[in-house]
TrEMBL record:
<dbReference type="InterPro" id="IPR055346">
    <property type="entry name" value="Fe-S_cluster_assembly_SufBD"/>
</dbReference>
<dbReference type="Pfam" id="PF01458">
    <property type="entry name" value="SUFBD_core"/>
</dbReference>
<protein>
    <submittedName>
        <fullName>Iron-regulated ABC transporter permease protein SufD</fullName>
    </submittedName>
</protein>
<dbReference type="InterPro" id="IPR037284">
    <property type="entry name" value="SUF_FeS_clus_asmbl_SufBD_sf"/>
</dbReference>
<comment type="similarity">
    <text>Belongs to the iron-sulfur cluster assembly SufBD family.</text>
</comment>
<dbReference type="InterPro" id="IPR000825">
    <property type="entry name" value="SUF_FeS_clus_asmbl_SufBD_core"/>
</dbReference>
<feature type="region of interest" description="Disordered">
    <location>
        <begin position="1"/>
        <end position="33"/>
    </location>
</feature>
<dbReference type="GO" id="GO:0016226">
    <property type="term" value="P:iron-sulfur cluster assembly"/>
</dbReference>
<dbReference type="InterPro" id="IPR011542">
    <property type="entry name" value="SUF_FeS_clus_asmbl_SufD"/>
</dbReference>
<feature type="compositionally biased region" description="Polar residues">
    <location>
        <begin position="1"/>
        <end position="11"/>
    </location>
</feature>
<feature type="domain" description="SUF system FeS cluster assembly SufBD core">
    <location>
        <begin position="139"/>
        <end position="363"/>
    </location>
</feature>
Length: 395
């Protein structure tokens, strides 16, 4: 059974998606605010929360002050600075106002914000690495991270998350004109962690942003990406990979706002699921405004179900307000192992378990290699291998 959609047709498989036929609210009209009071507490019937197990987020929705923080350590090339700033400074630098209650609470309640400043004309082969680690799920940690990339800079930034935490964070990434940034967020939490994040992205004229999200650990991980292309020639590439195990909920939501002419965006997310109750959600929204003539955009989500009892929901959406575009499309597919691939490998003497491992490894490898940071690619492929070792035992 599978779900397959593109810009001209939609075939719904109720076992894997229950969302493709529900009318969508125009994302450009949804509430954004730094004030928690502007957001009603979710009850689970809202379009943006209907897939999420919201009972597990009660502590975050309560939006109570907390002094708990994650431990963090930064490895930065010369000229890059990583500092802590207060709420007022952070708000003045944030590129987009929060789009949901957890993000608004993070901007209001985080004791301080981490500011990463990459100066104009900076260039280095070494990535900026910020490791964040939690030690307990008992108290909510509010976080705020801001990334400022100066004009014509060329940099790579990696955020890693590990340990135990109940964590709500708002991340702001501002890529100035002519700059190039590869931004990688790795969610490799312990099994009981809760992580709710909103990544707000702004891409300037002739700038490029490669935004990568890799999710492996955690009991519930929900990463929302709100991106706005604000300069002609802006280029945004959204890449994601997730491996969802039994009992895990991993949710990735994208909104790309084409607000200027002649900009480009691509989104490619792939996921593998295994075990009873494994649940992934991918929502891809693209808005092409009337002014955005010459837009070129495409989004793709693919899911591979490795065992019975796993479920993938996938809902791509396009809102197009002008017919003067280069191209716009989307595709989504969810299915099980390709029997022909397995037969081909087994016919050459490869045992079934190893054949399954090779198929899944190939499913992810091409995407991972697009990151372009060898050390990160090696780490991610190692994490995938660890997940595959579990998959062999559950198949």
């Amino acid at each position: 059974m599978s779900l397959s959609t593109d810009h001209s047709q939609a075939t719904l498989d109720a076992a894997h998606s229950h969302g493709a036929v529900v009318p969508q609210t125009d994302r450009s009209e949804r509430v954004t605010s730094y004030d928690v009071r502007d957001f009603a507490r979710p009850h689970g019937r809202e379009e943006e929360w209907r897939f999420t197990p919201i009972k597990k987020l009660d502590a975050i929705f309560a939006a109570q002050p907390s002094v708990a923080t994650l431990q963090w350590d930064a490895h930065v090339p010369a000229a890059v600075t990583v500092t802590e700033i207060d709420q007022a400074q952070a708000r003045s630098k944030s590129v987009l106002a929060p789009g949901d209650l957890p993000a608004a609470a993070a901007t209001s309640l985080a004791p301080t914000a981490i500011l990463i400043t990459i100066p104009a004309d900076f260039e280095s082969p070494d990535p900026i690495i910020v490791d964040l680690a939690g030690v307990s799920v008992d108290t909510v940690v509010w976080g705020q991270i801001l990334v400022e990339v100066g004009e014509r800079a060329n940099a790579s930034l990696v955020l890693t998350h590990s340990g135990q935490a109940t964590y709500s964070v708002h991340v702001s990434v501002d890529v100035a004109d002519g700059a190039h940034l590869t931004f990688v967020s790795v969610q490799d939490w312990d099994a009981n962690a809760i992580h709710v994040a909103e990544n707000a992205l702004r891409v300037g004229k002739d700038a490029t942003l490669k935004h990568v999200v890799m999710t492996f650990g955690g009991e519930l991980v929900r990463v929302s990406v709100n991106a706005q292309l604000v300069g002609e020639g802006a280029d945004l590439e959204l890449i994601g990979a997730y491996f969802t195990d039994a009992g895990q909920h991993q949710e990735h939501r994208l909104f790309v706002d084409h607000a200027v002419p002649r900009a480009r965006s691509r989104a490619t997310y792939k996921g593998a699921l295994q075990g009873q109750g494994a649940h992934s959600v991918w929502i891809g929204d693209v808005l092409i405004r009337a002014i955005a003539e010459g837009t070129d955009t495409y989004e793709l989500n693919r899911n591979l179900l490795l065992t019975e009892g796993a479920r993938a929901d996938s809902v791509p959406n396009l809102e197009i307000e002008t017919g003067e575009i280069e191209g716009a499309g989307h595709a989504s597919a969810t299915g099980r192992f390709d029997d022909e691939q397995l037969f081909y490998l087994q016919a050459r003497g490869i045992p079934e378990a190893e054949a399954r491992r090779l198929v899944v490894h190939g499913f992810f490898a091409e995407l991972v290699h697009e990151i372009g940071i060898p050390a990160v690619e090696q780490r991610l492929l190692a994490s995938i291998e660890e997940e595959l070792a579990l998959a062999v035992g559950q198949s």
